[in-house]
Amino acid sequence: MDRRFVYLDYAASAPLRPEAVAARSAYEAEPWACANPSSLHTLGREAQAALEGARRTVAACLGCGFRPMDVSFCGGGTEANNLGVVGLAEGARERDPGRRRVVLSAVEHDSVIDLASPLKARGFSVDVASPDPSGAVGPDRVAPLLGDDVALVCLMAANNETGVVQPVPAVAEAAKASGALVFVDAIQAFGRIPLGLSPVDGVSIAGHKIGAPQGTAALAVRGGVPYRNQEFGGGQEGGRRPGTPDVAGAVALAAVSELCVGAIPEVRPAVAALARGVYGRLCAPGTGIRPTAGAEVGDDRLPGIVSVVVEGVESETLILALDAAGFEVSAGSACSSGSLDPSHVLTAMGIPRDLALGSLRVSFDERVDPADLDAFCDELLAVVARWR
């Protein structure tokens, strides 16, 4: 491929980090890389030791009291969310048959919000907590939905489209006071901001958001929390995710998790400053471009997501024009690409349909070249000016 592309869609899937390649390659060079970690022979035990080392690292990166035995490696974030939400909801109901209701936030990723129908088919009722206009779902939005019949409350750590950081600790405290379990999708936030997970019962992460290989993820469920297994056929990963695990992938995920979590104090403010610069250029008066949740990137926002809407121009038009110029961005969640409907997140925030249809998400981390961000802003402003 001769064309040069500027990739600005890290929130969909971030470029693979050399540390991930090195960790995976080092494991694959070992004589036990071929072995099943469930086997009792020497090579199997060595593979198991590598897997458990990765589990310890991921648990340490999650912090907040999660233990290695709480962590189950999965094949992706969607799987981790499905197993976490349904497994915890059914576990809570088994412990207390009166708890037959699940509360989801309206800004959850599709892999959580789309569980409403399967949960109803399993005998649960589902209530949805709407955000305020800033995109945050606070305890004031969740508390009216709580009661002694709630099995589970789900609130993501930070939104994958707008970058809005959710008040997880406050919502979790309110939910726990009512006796409900709490699940947090931390897939977009993990490795980018500190996570306040102390009151939380279950959490999901995915490696490809931070530069680990695609297909690497983890679900953590605290010991002693009621959980009903959703997959069957083996006792691997505590029974929550049976099947032969991808040890090389787990090792790579652990290496990148440790790297990114350790670098948050330095990386977060630097990337946030880049995002503020992009907002400042794109959302200047007269451009016809507006931020979806405010242009000030602070502690209530993920540092590397710029979320805007363009007046009078649809996302598809913008994305194809930018792609032709070598800039790769998205309209929002990559899992919803191809949909003719506006983002359910922006709709829940009260953004009018005609504006929401012109949404763009630009995402990056500390590896981005600031000159590429400037060139992207030049191109988008020129594209919008031509179409408007």
UniProtKB/TrEMBL annotation:
GO terms for molecular function: cysteine desulfurase activity; iron-sulfur cluster binding; metal ion binding. The keyword Nucleotide-binding does not apply. Keywords: Iron, Iron-sulfur, Metal-binding, Pyridoxal phosphate, Transferase. Residues 6-376 form the Aminotransferase class V domain. InterPro entries: Aminotrans_V_dom, Cysteine_dSase, PyrdxlP-dep_Trfase, PyrdxlP-dep_Trfase_major, PyrdxlP-dep_Trfase_small. It catalyses: (sulfur carrier)-H + L-cysteine = (sulfur carrier)-SH + L-alanine. This is Cysteine desulfurase NifS. It comes from Granulimonas faecalis.
